[in-house]
Amino acid sequence: MTVAYVGVGSNIEPCKHSEVAVKELSKLGCSLKVSTIYECEALGFDGRAFYNFVVELQTDFSLAEFSRKLREIEIDWGRKEHSAKYQDRTLDLDLILFGEEISQQDPQIPRIDIYKYPFVIQPLYELCPDRVIPSDCKSIRQVWQNSTQLDLLKPVERWFEV
């Protein structure tokens, strides 16, 4: 089995879609762990605040199959198939890490967002601080220690069971 880390984001009915994301991801694997859910202002565009978190799970799917399944979930829950990058979302599922895979093609693994966004590195730090990022040889903890804007994150009390 491969350990995958999926970033979840929603700013359209975020309570509903955050819970849906966990239920849908549970169909793709087992041993789910869910980070704290954080509220964070939209970055890169003027929009409503997002709920963001990371889900860790073990899966038997290949990278290509898993990535395709994530896209299907997004579309099933209201995301437009050719939506622009910086806009409101019902559900955004980003594959951040997938075992020891390294891919420069779509999906890019490890996802560069690890180094860019507080709503990615903070939840990863909670789930796997000592995990080494393939292709970088740095641990999640090392990246987290150099992160900025972590103060933009507001923890949200989880209202559902995992």
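Next protein, fold it too.
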Amino acid sequence: MRRARSSPRRPTRNTSHVAQDKPTPFKDITSYNNFYEFGTDKGDPVEHAGSLRPRPWKVSVEGAIKNPKVYDIDDLLKLAPLEERVYRLRYVEGWSMVIPWIGVSLSELIRRAEPTGNAKYMQFITLADPSQMPGLSTPILDWPYSSEEGLRMDEAMNPLTLLTVGLYGEVLPNQNGAPVRVVVPWKYGFKSVKSLVKIRFVEKQPPTSWNTYAPTEYGFYSNVNPNVDHPRWSQATERRIGEDGFFTAKRKTLMFNGYGDQVASLYAGMGLKKNF
């Protein structure tokens, strides 16, 4: 498989946000993916995402802010010095990866936008272009995916929330959400929205794509919580892609995916079984 183009700038390793787990091999990260716009099988994105055109690319930032702006992808790269952060990412189906992401804290963009007092949530809208994304012909969700995805403002401002433009020292491959995505490492993977075209600051909690599709299975918060089972399977364990063989014992799933020290205070006093 041909690797992605080189990163436009050399990132600095952020040692404050580095998982100690062994990173998942590049081949596995880029060939075993959820990206339903290119098909529902884990191998569909790498096979079909070549049709995605990641340049030119613009991201509109709008809503309850003082400084609305349409960013060219190169402008996003200049928000702050790029950092490499090794994050765990867990998927609700029970598999996980450890990925050396490249990007900047989403808080850098938020600071420049200057939210008003009406900005309580951030809503993320992804590309939905049938000419580039053959999976849109399948009515699995109300496309575009994540047009109704969101974070609370304090979640978005958390230093761990990463506006991501690369992985493993290279620009994001198409199948991993090129050219820009969000990574929220303490939440299940479907909260890490891909191929962003619009970010909106809103007052009311936006409905989310998967919660709308299956409200008894997917909540707004989507925090990794091994104590709350999916209605059809347990969340207590996980399989690490590229590391564990079929007969190897699964790993124990960590609360908040192991990032509790950095994010548990965001949910103080909340019932995490009710607010799942």
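About the second fold: The first strand starts at residue 12 and ends at 18.
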